[in-house]
């Protein structure tokens, strides 16, 4: 968790400096970032769903 907070803090600091210098950020538009977030969530959804399915199958087989 600590590396994520450091990364967020560094990003905020750079954003403030960019604003104070009047420089436009080279970051992609917000719509691209939302799409990237969707990709990351989709990557995580498959292992989570697989784990839930395996857990439900195990619990169903133990009830028989």
TrEMBL record:
It comes from the Bacteria. InterPro entries: DUF1427, XapX_domain. The chain crosses the membrane at residues 5-21, 27-46. Keywords: Membrane, Transmembrane, Transmembrane helix. The keyword Transmembrane helix applies. It holds the Pfam family DUF1427. This is XapX domain-containing protein. It comes from Novosphingobium chloroacetimidivorans. The lineage of its organism: Bacteria, Pseudomonadati, Pseudomonadota, Alphaproteobacteria, Sphingomonadales.
């Amino acid at each position: 968790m600590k590396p994520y907070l450091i990364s967020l803090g560094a990003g905020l600091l750079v954003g403030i400096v960019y604003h104070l210098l009047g420089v436009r950020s080279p970051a992609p538009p917000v719509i691209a970032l939302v799409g990237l977030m969707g990709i990351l969530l989709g990557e995580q959804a498959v292992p989570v769903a697989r784990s839930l399915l395996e857990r439900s199958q195990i619990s169903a087989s133990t009830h028989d």
